[in-house]
Amino acid sequence: MMLAMSHYNSSAPSLLPPLVNTSPGQVEAEVAVKGLSQHGNLSFDQPTSSGPIAAMLSMTLGIVSNIVALFILANAYSLQRRRSKATFLLFAFSLVVTDFTGHVIPGALVLRLYLSGGVAEEAYDSADAMCQFLGGSMVFFGLCPLFLGCAMAAERCLGVTQPLLHSSLVTTTRTKITLSVIWLAALCVAMLPCFQLGSYTYQYPGTWCFIKVLEDTHEADVAFVVLFSGLGLTSLAVALVCNTISGLTLVLARLRRQPCSHHSAKSHDIEMVVQLVGIMVTSCICWSPLLIFGLMSVIRSYRDSIGDDLSSYKTLMVMGVRLASWNQILDPWVYILLRRTILRKVYLIAKCQTDLKGSVIRRWDPGSYHSSEKNAVNQI
User: Fold this and answer.
1) CA 117, CA 24: separation in Å to the nearest integer?
2) CB neighbour list of residue 16: distance below 8 Å, 6 or more residues apart
3) How is 29-82 classified by DSSP, letter by letter?
4) Strand 208-211 with 200-203, pairing
5) What proportion of the chain, given as a percentage, has pLDDT over 70?
6) Residue 113: pLDDT band by 50, 70, 90 thresholds?
7) Cis peptide preceding 205, ω within 30 of 0
8) 140 and which of 1, 31, 190, 293 could share a cystine (Cβ 3.0–4.6 Å)?
9) pLDDT: is 295 or 261 the higher one?
């Protein structure tokens, strides 16, 4: 596998906080693949940071984005009278609260590690209480958004395809119970290392903690990573299936809609499904790399086949966690930008552009003239 990334020189320390949401363009490392160099060796440059200012700006952006989304959702929930929409907003509000908390807590711990100079490589395995808490936070706040996105997609799929069954089964009380079960399930998975199933260790470059996936991995570590990645990827797959069914159902209903049908209700459903698709796409892009890289790393490490590729797998994990951290920044913008009022404006702008192009075409199309104009054109 060939991985090429830009190298960035900086006077700041060489430790980089992957969780403090630096942009993908700030990934600073360079890996030369074995076989490309003249000596056939894999060279790896440790990533360097653009400084704490960039980290603080990204944290501020995430906090502001989540607060704005919370305000929008809270206002919409207080004005909402349709129960199906209220259930969706309750799920969405819980998701943004989880993203906000997951953005602040791990980000603050990683920033603290970064400013203190990080942990030396020889001390990676000596995970202290803060590392255990940070690793557990990573797992908990990683699984919660994926579980919530899956539950929201399933709820909307039921509401779109079986509205009567949905109205009888889905209530506010049951929604709150579902949210509690989701948070409890994610917490149980995150606490498995407390029962000797897996472990958390410091990860390269010593500024964050996660499941042990590289070097000296055991059966428990493999099982823990397989469980974590399996649950995450399964949630994404279920959300993809449910959103596809909901989208196709709405498209077919839109095509068959009669003039006297309930357009308002359908517009609400379309808005919710569009937002769910936005959440799903964001989660897939942000979380799939870390879930897949984690599986690849722990399997090769357990088989002792990682060899000279260890440096490249460290870089993959750093890239994966950087990308995953962007999920908590991008999720709120799904609710900020994909609201019905915004979508309606976009639709009207697109329609005006289409009508304008159509009028230009008709202006030059003789078939669009009146009969007298047609005769004149034909005579010419």
Assistant:
1) 22
2) 22, 28, 47, 48, 49, 114, 205, 207, 318
3) -EEEPTTTSSS---EEEPP----HHHHHHHHHHHHHHHHHHHHHHHHHHHH---
4) antiparallel
5) 72
6) confident
7) yes
8) 190
9) 295
